[in-house]
Structure formats: structure tokens, C-alpha cells
Amino acid sequence: MTSVNSDYAAAGASSTKSTAAVNSSTNLGKDEFLKILMTQVQNQDPLNPVDDKEFISQMATFSSLEQMMNLNTTMTKYVENQDPFTMYVNWIGKNVTFSDSDGKDQTSPVNSVKHSNGNYVLVLENGKEVSPWNVTAVSETSK
């Protein structure tokens, strides 16, 4: 749709002013896009109608954009809710430095990770269990 007759644009503008005022702080959404598209189709010049290919192209572009926005929303939620277990598993075989009950720094390799009662625990090579919250550094083990 390369152009809109000014008479039709004025008619469409008057019907969308109230919507624009309400949504002035938000982006143009799919509902508004479809309303504008339908208004244009309803008010098009019967002697010079919109090309079908152009209409279909616009709908396909809009559909692709909507799918990408949905994918972005889904990925954002996934990243926000990603379990820290994934990070802790990457510590297996690495040295962790942590403060013991006396406040002294200790270093030991991680053998495994446990999860119980909503808490994660690192099981060290010597069998000692340490909360990841007490870890101050993670480093590669020297071989």
C-alpha cells in the first residue's frame, strides 16, 4: 500500500485519534495494525483497489514480525527462569574457593551438585558439602 487518498486518511485519522490518545505511551500493536489495514481496505478507491499481492505481502510480513516478537518473549522468559543448577554443574571438576565455618578460605575440587529442599549444595572431593553462596572463586584444577 504505497499511498492513501487524503479523504480516506482524514476519515481514518478521526477514528484512530481516541485510540492514539489512549495508547500514546505504547507501541503500535497487532490490533491497531489490523484496524488500520481493515479501514484502508474498506475505504479504498473502487476504481483503483489495493493490489492483492501487496496486501498478502503486508500480512505475511506482519505475521513474521508477530512470530519473532512471540519468540523473543518466550526466550526472555526462559532466560529469566533458567535454573542456576546449569551454572553449578559447570563447576564439577573445577576448584572452588569458599569460606569455612572459621572464616578461613579453603579450596577444593567439586565432585557433584545436589539439590534438596530448594537449596543447591556442592559436594567437594573430600566429601564436604558447601553452599554455592559461600563460594568466592571458581578456577580450573591444575593437572
UniProtKB/TrEMBL annotation:
| Superkingdom as given in the UniProt entry | Bacteria
| Keyword annotations of the record | Bacterial flagellum biogenesis, Cell projection, Cilium, Flagellum
Q: Name one Pfam family in it.
A: FlgD
InterPro entries, alphabetized? FlgD
Protein's GO biological process: bacterial-type flagellum organization
Q: Which family does it belong to?
A: Belongs to the FlgD family.
List the NCBIfam families. Answer: PRK09618.1
Name-wise, this protein is Flagellar hook assembly protein FlgD
